[in-house]
Amino acid sequence: MSQAARPLRVAMIGYAFMGRAHSQGWRVAPRFFDLPLEPRMQVLVGRHADAAQAAADRLGWQEVETDWRRVLERDDVDLVDICTPGDTHAEIACAALEAGKHVLVEKPMANTLAEAETMAAAAEEAAARGVLSMVGFTYRRVPAVQLARQLVVEGRIGEVRQVRCQYLQDWLADAEAPLSWRTDKAKAGSGALGDIGAHIIDLTHFITGERVAGVSAMLETLVAERPVAESFDGLHGVGGSERGPVTVDDTAMFTARLASGAPAVFDATRFAWGRKNAIRIEVNGTTGSLAFDFEDMNVLEYYDASEPARTAGFRRILVTEPEHPYVASWWPAGHGLGYEHGFVHQAVDLVRAVAAGEQPTPSFADGLAVQRVLDAVERSSAARSVYTDIAAHAAAAQS
Amino acid sequence: MSQAARPLRVAMIGYAFMGRAHSQGWRVAPRFFDLPLEPRMQVLVGRHADAAQAAADRLGWQEVETDWRRVLERDDVDLVDICTPGDTHAEIACAALEAGKHVLVEKPMANTLAEAETMAAAAEEAAARGVLSMVGFTYRRVPAVQLARQLVVEGRIGEVRQVRCQYLQDWLADAEAPLSWRTDKAKAGSGALGDIGAHIIDLTHFITGERVAGVSAMLETLVAERPVAESFDGLHGVGGSERGPVTVDDTAMFTARLASGAPAVFDATRFAWGRKNAIRIEVNGTTGSLAFDFEDMNVLEYYDASEPARTAGFRRILVTEPEHPYVASWWPAGHGLGYEHGFVHQAVDLVRAVAAGEQPTPSFADGLAVQRVLDAVERSSAARSVYTDIAAHAAAAQS
Amino acid sequence: MSQAARPLRVAMIGYAFMGRAHSQGWRVAPRFFDLPLEPRMQVLVGRHADAAQAAADRLGWQEVETDWRRVLERDDVDLVDICTPGDTHAEIACAALEAGKHVLVEKPMANTLAEAETMAAAAEEAAARGVLSMVGFTYRRVPAVQLARQLVVEGRIGEVRQVRCQYLQDWLADAEAPLSWRTDKAKAGSGALGDIGAHIIDLTHFITGERVAGVSAMLETLVAERPVAESFDGLHGVGGSERGPVTVDDTAMFTARLASGAPAVFDATRFAWGRKNAIRIEVNGTTGSLAFDFEDMNVLEYYDASEPARTAGFRRILVTEPEHPYVASWWPAGHGLGYEHGFVHQAVDLVRAVAAGEQPTPSFADGLAVQRVLDAVERSSAARSVYTDIAAHAAAAQS
Amino acid sequence: MSQAARPLRVAMIGYAFMGRAHSQGWRVAPRFFDLPLEPRMQVLVGRHADAAQAAADRLGWQEVETDWRRVLERDDVDLVDICTPGDTHAEIACAALEAGKHVLVEKPMANTLAEAETMAAAAEEAAARGVLSMVGFTYRRVPAVQLARQLVVEGRIGEVRQVRCQYLQDWLADAEAPLSWRTDKAKAGSGALGDIGAHIIDLTHFITGERVAGVSAMLETLVAERPVAESFDGLHGVGGSERGPVTVDDTAMFTARLASGAPAVFDATRFAWGRKNAIRIEVNGTTGSLAFDFEDMNVLEYYDASEPARTAGFRRILVTEPEHPYVASWWPAGHGLGYEHGFVHQAVDLVRAVAAGEQPTPSFADGLAVQRVLDAVERSSAARSVYTDIAAHAAAAQS
């Protein structure tokens, strides 16, 4: 980053888990990557002035606002980074785009398909005016995932034949864990499906270059009632004796077809004791296979079927070489990256796209594509798992 | 085996892959296990006398017959071991039971649901006469799988909440591999579904103690045409220029519910490049998880959620201790077993059940339960994956 | 095995752990492999007639003798298979060779270097008369180990630069485990060194094709006193209140140089809690690496440094393909083998060598080479770990 | 970090690989951790003004100096962070301590034992004046390593019986990689030994709480001549046709005894093709074992021998829970950390120690302890690997 670089002034709305991660992205990106614009952590927005100021001090933002509408009016804000809960995304994002601000919105892009469609339309209209937008599916930016995509593009596994995906966590497996906004359909939209299932849908779209065309789904709420949180111990609620209903799914399993007809299977749960953040994707092609597990995130496994059977085997590629995506800017081989590096890479890619005036990915259209799958999953599950075609529905909705 | 042990005289029908494995079971079982009856490899049955005699010499059977009906008439045969293709199982098994011979039949028990129902009825009737029968799901007899079952029974993972199963192979992933009886619906009944999907259904039944109650399924033939085999190179066909249709599924993916309502997901394929015999089962319970992969068959992974999070983790239990099922009869800790040991254990368990006059497991009723799932999978797949209830259908069929 | 095959009549001396394993080798080999001679389990030798007869019945030997000298006089014995403790090997083996019997002797070949030298000389003399001999280092015959050797020979890792070996067990880690013959120098010769260290020395010799030329060693007895065994619970002693000294090493660590000068490091212990039979060998060459761990014995890991760094990684080769050593006679890909298959392969290789009149490997000369390393390790350890040259000593001994 | 926090003004000398890592530590620490002092990136020191200014801009340092002596005179510098090559450490560190500046020095603390002894003495003298010092063995600060230490302290593996360590890399395995300062004894002091062997010595000291008491060592230069670098491609030299000697070791293997007498084995190499940064430590205690591999750095493996053998196994503890060291300040469970987080933790621990006026660890005395082992390794290797006692030598040196 040369001293003469023009700034890209960012306003971030929300400062919880995702706000901390996005802040790290903006903070660190220019220290390791050559960027055409200098990201500036201009203003943090939070409803409560004191809490927002404390967060800004901690996270390193220069100023604070308490009303997100204010930052849309400011001339010294170029980009709005939306880290609030999903039910607020559509309103803020559309207003920001309307105000000429570039937008980064955390996933899930929206809580409903209707909101997502509105946002995608707004993004398309804004793009015509040079105002850009992007959704925060940061797992795309893990180097091993990028390498997987590259190998598919290069034909190293041939045509995609099958995909199997899992996203396994266990933080709700304790039936006495209390209710929270994440177990409330009104606020979260859905449960495991939208929270983590969305990631493996997006990763499938990204790695294969194909979209899910239809699904047959089974959603299930494994623990129907939980304690109502009476107090909070840090981030976590502490339950009392009162109980209330869980109104979202705990686990989402679905089979699917990609646009090419290739079958796929998805399994997202927050009840897999012992699995903490196991995002697993295996893609079988006509001439090879790829496998990834986020619990060993610096590794991509690759099987090259053109190798004689005698010496063929899944290769454990440690994706830490300078030849690997993003890695040359970091450390020597074998010195692996962690979770938040995806947010740094996200900042890098967004800054570069904005500077070049090019559409960053994943776009709101990409986010909408995921939302359509989530919607079809819910409709299929409600209709005895009957195969539910996304394209037809999407076409009908657009006509 | 004391010298005074009464013999259990076995007739084995068929002598290909499964015949070799079953022979090893009968041969080795009395050398390592104390058995109440002495299994005797009395007679091998094959249609072609010369080939059958060569097989009997190689495998160590005392005599040969060319017509399976003959062995049913012989007084010196106590048990008929059926290793022929699936389309012959029902006829032979029913006749053998009728003739008062105990029966062991390789899986799949039958090619159709109707055959399986006939066999189960015959087995029930025979059992009343003291004539016993069993299906050859030998993967149940891997020590790590037995340990998994024990831990479930002992409540070490609490109530079963979810199951995820995969059976991944790659031996048909080469689109130029020629047609064979396994790609022919008339002979094989189905493809990946019945060949390998049947195993993970049975393992789910066994480990959880619950049966699959309904499914939503997607079957797919990934390579629709293959070369017709012109010649044979050992066991393997060599394709010519002519092509013919594949009439079975190549991959079977389905979601399911167990009797308790617990969701499950299944994925069986012969197209997963790099996976050779990856039978993977993960069971999440209310207080722990279990995971198994046949490609590392002497290991069971166990997560005990009652352990404090600070020191909890999946334990890699090397299932080679004398305390583990079957192991005390073999080798010291760490000296693992292989694939065919399951056939030895099968022989041991069957001999003991026969001696005790007790029903061995898995019974023909267990085999029928698997067949019902296979049937429901095919019906669901044909009906746009709609959730298909097995119990209702089974009840209707029985009424 | 054709019916016309000439027999190879075996007498086995001893019938404990190794006798059971050798019996399985003789029993099973002709059922899966085409052999030029038919191994016949002729006579089992044990000092106590009743116990020997019970073992012969269980293991399937036709006759029993109580004095090993008797079988040397019998015309119907072609080969003597010595499974007794190490302190008896030299006498029996030399007498058997003298009597014109082929000999298979379990490892360790001998308890002392002097014995081993005598045996090697006897073997060389016998070979001139067409009488053959072999040492039972069966881990050489794990398919993954054979593949490792093949890849080295084919130059797939270039020149050998470094070797690191571990043999980790934990069956003596409990300080209350009682004394046994294995903790008694008079009977066992040494502790971890000769029992398991010998295996990794032989594997290094085999895989690299080079012998250890010198060592710098540290032997240690970690638990100096143990309970005296008062009774026996099956194979295992049960200790009482009396204690006695452990007179062998518990752990053996040594650095070494191969004949080429390449450095190597060895680590053998029976005190590594949680490691049951972890025989681990890693060989780094100028153009690649190989790694093996017996706890996952059907796998060889291979790194090919000629692959571009971007897609290079250790390949997990599942050594279960028909192209792999020994495997075509067994099961389809992915259906792994176990511990005792090494004894089957040993029988196969020995029968073939005898039929061909060719020297089987490992020869007594190979066994002597290992014994020389064991001896040098003890001398180095006694001399403050000073580097101790094997070749010079061996040359001096031979002059 | 409250706004009222007093600053801790840092001057960093050197800005290559380690300078980038240290900068990230200072930058990020206050954003995730509550610190009693606010680290301020005050001044970066580099010999060439332009390059230093560019580095300061990139890395975020406020000012630049070209002579390290200048910063010792400045009142606005509280701490000197030394990231230069090892041959300069002693002079700078001693001068800084003399000037009353706290000191952080990258490892290796020094290139010679004499320098290290001088530094340790200076540190001890400075500490009496309240001036603190620390060595940058950051691998101690990987959460899994900290957890290993905690479990040892808590007695979860009992008494330490054995240690095995490896540090395997492959970046010099290509014989055509050119000469650099790291292959030059004058600049680097030693090769694999001091560069990476030092880390596993320090980790052994840290995890076991015991120091190495003596060693028997074998150093080897595997590639004796390499191309002289003619030009540079980024960080890497590009070799020409001229060749020169490698004057350092390529691989260091040694056995050792800890203070308690427990045997240990060490193996450090930059020639292990396929291993990129495999820092592996296994500790066997009287009641359990621990194992760590940096290539899977968020995992600690733990075997608890008090668990019944039937369900015992190495647990794969994903060290990403809030209960784990440092983790509560970062991300939810399963969202792993990377290499540079160790530098953040180092900054945190150092800031806290300085604020509290307490000795941070590892101290210069700890660094000297490592240096004594390095020295003994070199002496043993030069004396035919004879066991070389560190304590005696150290005592003699101190008398």
TrEMBL record, chains A, B, C, D:
Domain Gfo/Idh/MocA-like oxidoreductase N-terminal: 8-128
Keywords annotated in UniProt: NAD, Oxidoreductase
A Pfam family matched in the record: GFO_IDH_MocA_C3
Domain GFO/IDH/MocA-like oxidoreductase: 145-290
SUPFAM superfamilies cross-referenced by the UniProt entry: Glyceraldehyde-3-phosphate dehydrogenase-like, C-terminal domain, NAD(P)-binding Rossmann-fold domains
InterPro entries registered for this protein in UniProt: Gfo/Idh/MocA-like_OxRdtase_N, Gfo/Idh/MocA_oxidrdct_glycsds, GFO_IDH_MocA-like_dom, NAD(P)-bd_dom_sf
A GO MF label: oxidoreductase activity
Coiled coil: none
Keyword Protein biosynthesis in record: no
Domain of life: Bacteria
Record carries keyword Nucleotide-binding: no
Protein name: Gfo/Idh/MocA family oxidoreductase
Species this chain originates from: Georgenia thermotolerans
Source species taxonomy: Bacteria, Bacillati, Actinomycetota, Actinomycetes, Micrococcales
